[in-house]
Structure formats: structure tokens, C-alpha cells
Amino acid sequence: MKKALVFLVTFSLLVTLVFAGSVSAQDKYKIGVLAPAVTHGWVAAVAYHAEARCEELSDQIEYRIQTSSNAAEMTSQLDDLKTWGAEAIVAFPQWTGMEVPIRMAIEDGIEVVNFDIKIDVDGVYRVAGDNYDMGVEGAHYITDKIGKEGTVVILEVPTAGSVSELRKAGFLDTLEEIGADFDLHTYATKFTREAGLSDMSDILIRHDQIDAVYSMDDETSIGVVKAIEEAGREDIKVVTGGGGMQEYFEMMPEYQNIWLESALYSPAMVKDAVDMALDILKGKDVPQEKIIPTTIVDRTNYEKFLDPDSPY
């Protein structure tokens, strides 16, 4: 009799534990993350920070992170997340052609939070930095360091579409507002250090005097600084950047003759997108769009932004 009683109690406890575990798993929200395959250090850091935040929330969510090389692959992965049962998806669609699959996901009842990229789909949420404000801050930074006169090179990146256009517009609009009378020279480049080095080397040959370089990206800026160093030029007093690259931060105190600046557009913002997705699923009141203001990093404060674990 006692053995039977012990068995029943033990069995009852096991059933209770299994049932409790089942309920606990069911109570977790399912969130998928769609990111591009690595084409740039900044993009690699997006997936890194997304996974870090999902791990921090693992007591509340189940998650899957997928990376893709084009719109067709990302669409296929979006379908996989639907089959898995994703209730919300954080998407970083770098290519055109994602509007239809994202619209279909929303129509299927999935909450979608776009990171960085803005697409024309009703019902999509968005978290991004302020590209226009990066240009605004860059203009203020340069005029603060060299005054309102001088020769300034603008390095735009036409292949980056609205990212480059907004950063350039913010820069030019602000120069006009504050009455800066710069001799401006605009050149096309890319968001890579190799392009920054090659293009800036050519630009240095064309101009005997340059006071500042408005670069929009930290990787480009690393190449720019290398070109200046190799040419032995001492006339350039400011090189801006953008993104939040650890290597560029670490260079800042090494160049006391040049102010190296980065308008922080941190890949860590994707954590806010994951948080937004979870808040939506919890039924919280969430704004349709969250734009994160620009933070300026230079040798006076770079130590606050160092992250030894960051891949960018």
C-alpha cells in the first residue's frame, strides 16, 4: 500500500513538472530575426547584437536568427519563420523586393518591426537611427573645429541610396543655416576602407589644401586617415565618420593633430527593435516608429563606447 502511495505521489509530481514545463514553453513568445549576410562590419554587428538581446530575453522568448544574401533568400527565410510559428519578426531588408512578402506576413497576423531600412508597407513598425541628424551633427562638429571658412571634401556614397542622401542633406542644410562659407568638393566613394584609401589618395593629389573631410562611415574614414598619413599631409584638421566601429574609436586618441569623429549609428540599435517586437506581443502601447538621436564620439569620450566583444 505504501509503495503504491509513493508511486502515485511521484507520478503526480512528474506530471505536474512536465505540465508546468509545457506551459512555460507555451508562454514564451516566438520572435524571428531576418538580417543580411555579412557585407560590411556594421551588418555583422547587427546579427551579433540581435542574438545577444534575444539571449538576454530567453526566459520570455524563443527565437531564430536567419541571414540571407538577397531578397529571394530572405523571402524564403520569412516563409520558414512563418512555418515555425513566429509571432513577430524583426527584419533588416537591405534590398528592394521585400515589400510584398512583408505585407503578406502582416496580413497573416505577424507583427513586423523593420530595423534601419524604411519600406512602404502599412502596419510595419520601425527602429532606426537618424541619418539626416548625422549630417547636421557633422556640420556642427566641423565648423566648431575649423570655423566657417575653409576647404571641405564631402565623401558621398550614391550606392547607399537614402542613407547617403539624408546624411549629405543634413550636412549641407546645416552649413547653410549657420552661414558657413566653405569651398566644398564632393566625391563618390564606398563604405569600405579600401575605397576610402584609394579615393582619398586621388583627392589629396588634386587639392593642396584641405581643412576637413566629411566622411559618412567609419570604415571609409579609416581608409581616409591612412591616405592622409601615407601622403604626409598635415593640413587636414577633421575627419568625420559614422556607424560606431571599434577600430576607428581606438584610433581617435592616436591622432592628436586630427580630430577623428564618429556620428554614432550603432548596430546595437537592433536591440531596441527586438524589445519593440516583444512589447507589441505583450500588448503594450508602442509607437509606429522609433528614431534614435545621434551621439558624437571623438577622443574626448570614445572610451565610453568601447566593446571588446563587438565584431564591428
From TrEMBL:
Q: Where is the Periplasmic binding protein domain?
A: 31-285
Q: Which UniProt keywords apply?
A: Signal
GO MF terms, alphabetically ordered: carbohydrate binding
Per the record, a Pfam family? Peripla_BP_4
Endpoints of the signal sequence: 1-20
Q: What is its main location?
A: other
Please provide one cellular component term from the Gene Ontology annotations of this protein. cell envelope
Q: Where in the cell is it found?
A: Cell envelope
Query: Which family does the similarity line name?
Result: Belongs to the bacterial solute-binding protein 2 family.
- Output this protein's name: Monosaccharide ABC transporter substrate-binding protein, CUT2 family
**To which species is this protein native?**
Halanaerobium kushneri
